[in-house]
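Predict structure. Chain length: 84.
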Amino acid sequence: MDNGFFKNIEKKTGVNMKDIFELAGSLQNANFKDEATVRNVIRRVSQIANKNVPKETEDKIVKSIVNDGKQLDINTITKMINKN
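Prediction complete.
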């Protein structure tokens, strides 16, 4: 990918692409049946997105991933965070 492409994304979103790539790398071998791991991912995404995630919302996301087997990806978490 073109470095200019990523710079444009950073300008438009305010999100550092290095943070996104580090998060994506950490997700590759993560155990998403582990509640602590899922909470960690949610907190990291909310930090990167500069969004506060209320405890109730975090609990719902964790339940949907750990207990209900919902697939975890950054888009899913971001959508859930942005609902509030």
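Summary: The first helix runs from residue 3 to 13.
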